[in-house]
Design a protein that fits this description.
The protein is an alpha/beta fold and 368 residues long. The chain has eleven helices and eleven strands. 36% of the residues lie in helices and 21% in strands.
Length: 368
């Protein structure tokens, strides 16, 4: 996607009680095509309508920045208060609003440009729906999850038939073996290198991908993925672009430990982490947080590489997140997938919504 693309942010927030259980929703559209590039929503506990609306604005600006940091953004909201305050026509007096407005302005100033437009509530239905979905999920004790495929009112939906349009195909390659993967240790954001076997695995994967018709290579910023991607680049002649959203989860204080060692030192924390995707390892990152950034990274691919085949060199957690979303599966499905080092998987993402998992954990190319 070229710098300075025109985007539209639609945002809303609500409170059931004012103050009461609150949540926000926001989405980013391509201003030319109207295509939804990103959706975000979250329940925020007890808050007022205005706080929830500002939180929606902040989330929408953040999502737009993830898509294109130089974007020209038009924000559309049905909150007269937020639109007038952010446009500089009304003063911000309430102490709860001041830090939120400052954060929104920081995000806006980092973008190419931002303008604000008031719209009637009936024209902000999408963002309103997202906010209510988040609040409904919280009332059930759940986290809001972006819907991949929708079939409302169908108790037994028919099989999804892929669109006749050409999809975006993501070929997903887990990096080669590292010293930590050999010993089955938590390997998150630390820059562990490939082993000699890992480098050989990367070269074998590269040969298997040589004639796959790749249009682009995208990689996690971590060295084990960049080195794996470099082997594919060497045989295909393609450039490699780093996408931070596809980095591994941050395992915090568990980094470098085995599962048993983490359980011994943090038994309650490990149990909570396994049970709740919103719980992070001590000093680390929750699966819910990883899921949000992986979805944003995928949305960026859908814009930049529409109808192309893109190799994504990444890690266990991001690849499983993509597979989970393609299947419309719940978060616990992550624990039912096994992904080998240097394994290949493939997903087709269709512009009208459906996704198709074409292959998973393919290791036929690896030396015995």
């Amino acid at each position: 996607m070229s710098a300075g693309r025109k985007l539209v942010v639609e945002a809303d927030g609500g409170s059931r009680g004012n103050p009461g259980p609150a949540g926000y929703g926001a989405l980013v559209r391509d201003a030319l095509t109207g295509e939804v590039l990103a959706e975000v929503a979250e329940a925020i506990g007890d808050a007022t309508n205005n706080v929830a609306e500002y939180r929606g604005l902040i989330a929408g600006l953040g999502a737009a920045s993830e898509i294109d940091a130089a974007a020209r953004v038009e924000v559309r909201m049905d909150s007269k208060l937020v639109v007038e305050q952010m446009s500089g026509r009304w003063k911000i007096k309430h102490p709860d609003m001041i830090p939120l407005a400052l954060r929104a302005r920081e995000l806006a100033e980092a973008l190419g440009s931002v303008s604000y437009t008031w719209i009637p509530r009936n024209r902000n239905a999408h963002a309103d729906r997202l906010a209510n979905e988040a609040m409904d999920a919280a009332a059930r004790g759940e986290e809001w999850v972006r819907k991949v495929d929708e079939a409302p009112g169908e108790p037994e939906p028919p099989p999804v038939r892929p669109s006749s349009a050409t999809p975006l195909t993501t070929v997903l390659l887990r990096h080669g073996e590292t010293p930590l993967s050999v010993e089955k240790r938590f390997a998150g954001t630390s820059d562990v290198p490939l082993t000699a076997d890992g480098l050989a695995q990367a070269r074998a994967a590269a040969l298997a991908l040589k004639d796959r018709g790749l249009d682009a290579i995208v990689t996690s910023p971590l060295a084990r993925c960049r080195d794996t991607a470099a082997e594919v680049a060497a045989v295909t002649g393609l450039d490699v672009r780093v996408e931070d959203g596809f980095r591994e989860a941050d395992f915090g204080e568990w980094e470098g430990l085995t599962f048993a060692e983490a359980g011994k030192g943090w038994p309650a924390e490990l149990k909570a982490w396994l049970a709740d995707p919103k719980v992070a390892p001590p000093g680390g990152e929750s699966f819910a947080q990883v899921s949000r950034r992986v979805r944003t990274a995928l949305d960026k691919l859908k814009v930049r590489h529409r109808e192309q085949t893109v190799l994504v060199v990444s890690h266990v957690t991001p690849i499983k997140m993509l597979v989970k979303d393609a299947l419309g599966a719940p978060m616990p499905a992550l624990y039912r997938m096994h992904l080998d080092v240097a394994a290949l998987s493939s997903i087709d993402w269709y512009a009208d919504g459906p996704a198709t998992l074409r292959s998973f954990n393919d290791v036929h190319h690896l030396p015995a």
